[in-house]
Amino acid sequence: MTAVSPIERAQLPPKKSVFRIVMRWCRKQPLGAVSAAVLAVIILTAVFADFIAPYDPVLNDFANMLTAPNADFWLGTDQFGRDVFTRIIYGAQTALFVGFTAAFFGSTVGLVLGVTSAYLGGIFDLIFQRIMDVFMAFPSIIIALAIVATFGSGTQNVILAITIPMIPNCARVVRSSALQVREIPYVDAARSLGFSHARIVLRHMVPNVTAPYLIMFTSFLGQAILAEASLSYLGLGVQEPTPAWGLMLQGGAEEYAESAIWIAIFPGLAITLAVFAFNLFGDAVRDTLDPRLRSR
Predict the structure, then answer these.
(1) Can you list the pairs that 129-137 forms with residues at least 24 positions away whose Cβ atoms lie under 8 Å?
(2) Which of 49, 82, 218, 258 has its CA 20 to 30 A from that of 180?
(3) pLDDT (tens digit per residue) in 41-61
(4) What is the DSSP letter of 295?
(5) Percentage of the chain with pLDDT > 70?
(6) DSSP secondary structure code for residue 83 in this structure
(7) Could you read off the pLDDT of 257-274 as tens digits, one per residue?
(8) What is d(CA 68, CA 259) in angstroms, rounded to the nearest whole number?
């Protein structure tokens, strides 16, 4: 290795520390920085729920049913005497688990299918895109309801119901980027060297479409949390006594809308805060990774 002289070393641009890179990103994306801070609080709250929550989230306390917010129960209690604040904290675990799992699998499967479709092209690409058009013709909530109605409720089926509608959207976006990558000469060089199709797709094309993949993944997070809350509110998602924000809305949004309004307000605020934070963070990631927006 050639040694670098002191003069040449002095002429080299200074290395940017991680802290400086993060601070620069925060200055350029203030809303993204605020949303990232909010998400960090939500994630830490979910991780350390056992240490933060003051009560058992599933233990009924019939002596304190429908208690208004006070010093003992900061956000009041529900119709079974369960602490609303505690259930919101544990509900963050359910929302983040379902959201991250569904968004990861939905965007990852869409990534692989989109790149494969762009690489193979021809009749496979034509048939695949028509299948994606069929899925995209239906609202995602309709597909999710059909899946849950077919396979039943529960956490696993809810994740499946949320994941499947995400796949066509990610596959379509990734495919448009993969079509450009396919024309780059190193892909032709890989073919001429006799590499397998799987190796070319996974090793040479997928790494070059990670930017749209990350953008879709972050945007899917808020959608997944909202979809999980919607299914739980309809009684087709996570079931009692598991703490879930949508399930808390179902239990108090209608029957106790006037007598105990806090049962619905605080879970609704939690859903709103999480979805807005993920959406704003996704927009910031898109603005950072998209070269067309980054150059402005």
Answers:
(1) 129/172, 129/175, 132/168, 132/171, 132/172, 133/168, 135/164, 135/165, 135/167, 135/168, 136/168, 136/169, 136/172
(2) 218
(3) 999 999 999 999 999 998 888
(4) T
(5) 91
(6) B
(7) 777 888 888 999 999 999
(8) 10
* 48-55+69-294 under CATH 1.20.120.1730, yes or no: no
* Nearest-angstrom CA–CA distance, 247 and 28: 38
Q: How many CB atoms lie within 10 A of CB 119?
A: 21
Helices then strands, counting H and E runs in the chain, come out as 14, 0
Alpha-carbon distance 67 to 84, whole Å? 10
Joined together, the tokens standing for residue 242 give 């598991």
pLDDT band at 1 (very low <50, low <70, confident <90, very high): very low
The CA distance from 240 to 155, in Å, is 11
Hey, what are 5's tokens?
């002289």
Q: Provide the token pair at 260.
A: 């105990």
Instruction: Spell out the domain ranges in the chain.
Output: 48-55+69-294
DSSP track, 196-243:
-HHHIIIIIIGGGGHHHHHHHHHHHHHHHHHHHHHHHHTTSSSPTTS-
CA-CA-CA-CA dihedral for 135, 137, 141, 143, to nearest 10 = -40
Structure tokens at 55: 């009560």
| Range 26-31, long-range pairs (CB < 8 A, 24+ positions) | 28/288, 29/284, 29/287, 29/288, 31/280, 31/283, 31/284
Intra-chain end-to-end CA distance of the chain, in Å: 39
